[in-house]
Design goal:
Family: Belongs to the ERGIC family.
Shape: elongated
Structural class: alpha+beta
Function: Plays a role in transport between endoplasmic reticulum and Golgi.
Keywords: Endoplasmic reticulum, ER-Golgi transport, Golgi apparatus, Membrane, Transmembrane, Transmembrane helix, Transport
Number of strands: 13
Protein name: Endoplasmic reticulum-Golgi intermediate compartment protein
Membrane topology: Multi-pass membrane protein
Mean pLDDT: 85
Strand content: 35-45%
């Protein structure tokens, strides 16, 4: 059962959303890669390092960034950039592959298929190395309630993206990978329900009825073929 309503389903979260980001930049050294977080509540954090890890790629020429952090439930952005580097590189290469971007807890439910990791596999390796990338996200609160009444909270999101070359006030190109987000006021709720007995009985009757119908058709075909064969045999005897 699916339904939509207007509310914040996870009021115990303290106004926070957990974010999981896993992204590879195969042509940018790890010491240059950083995560910056900004929002409309005044948060402005450059070089966020808590619960994050950088894994060298391509003999140290590239980097895989994995981070787990929280954002406030207000419009804002987080971006992967070289802004926190001690010295800015001359030609930072922001080509990348996104392995994971998800919000909230992962729903381990086989019958719920939503856009919980919509950017998985996004490949920008053939883009202009100096281009900035904007991913515009609309985050949709999602609730799953099982048959016992236990609720789990997660977030789906839609995404649009564009890329462009941006110049600083000094005329230098300092590209970044931006994730600009806003929250939808609409919550999606999935409710698990046991199948009613009458629906189960109806399904069984439909299966039985279908079986008899097919059996009747086969019997008719066999009878018709048998009669035709008899007529052929009689024709040969005359």
């Amino acid at each position: 059962v699916n339904e939509l309503y207007v509310d914040d389903p996870d009021k115990d979260s303290g106004g926070k959303i957990e974010v999981n980001l896993n992204i590879s930049l195969p042509n940018l050294h790890c010491e240059l890669v950083g995560l910056d977080i900004q929002d409309e509540m005044g948060r402005h954090e450059v070089g966020h390092i808590d619960n994050s890890m950088k894994i060298p790629l391509n003999n140290g020429d590239g980097c895989r960034f994995e981070g787990h952090f929280s954002i406030n439930k207000v419009p804002g952005n987080f971006h992967v950039s070289t802004h926190s580097a001690t010295a800015q590189p001359q030609n930072p290469d922001m080509t990348h592959v996104i392995h994971k971007l998800s919000f909230g807890d992962k729903l381990q439910v086989h019958n719920v298929h939503g856009a919980f990791n919509a950017l998985e596999g996004a490949d920008k390796l053939s883009s202009n190395p100096l281009a900035s990338h904007d991913y515009i996200l609309k985050i949709v609160p999602t609730v799953y309630e099982d048959m016992s009444g236990k609720q789990r909270y997660s977030y789906q999101y839609t995404v649009a993206n564009k890329e462009y070359v941006a110049y600083s006030h000094t005329g230098r190109i300092i590209p970044a990978i931006w994730f600009r987000y806003d929250l939808s006021p609409i919550t999606v709720k999935y409710t698990e329900r046991r199948q009613p007995l009458y629906r189960f009985i109806t399904s069984i009757c439909a299966i039985i009825g279908g079986t008899f119908t097919v059996a009747g058709i086969l019997d008719s075909c066999i009878f018709t073929a048998s009669e035709a064969w008899k007529k052929i045999q009689l024709g040969k005897m005359q």
